[in-house]
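Protein: 7,8-dihydroneopterin aldolase
Species: Flavobacterium aciduliphilum
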Amino acid sequence: MGTIKLQNIRTFSFHGCLEEEGKIGSDYRVDLEVKTDLRKSSLSDDLNDTVDYVLLNRIVVEEMAIRSKLLEHVAHRIITRIFKEIPSVSRIVLGVSKLNPPIGGDVEAVTIEMEEYRN
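Structure follows.
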């Protein structure tokens, strides 16, 4: 087994419960970790034998572009899509952070983290 991590994927998205957040947008950071079997690709040196991190990044960016009120909702969509499109992924740990959230304080980021295993 092995782990593939994509760290600090940055997007400008329009998530949030406030109407203004849907119009103004904010900066977000996504951290993704997937568990998969890397033994075959370590021997074959063939992209077809591993999880393509370009595809992982595309899934994150496309799902982050779809407005959600809650970070949990967009995270769930990302997890569901990865499991659907990449059968070799057995576990996902996903963090979605809203940078400089409008919560009336000096807060660098609010982060939700979800961990899911393939059923």
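Remarks: The radius of gyration is 16 Å.
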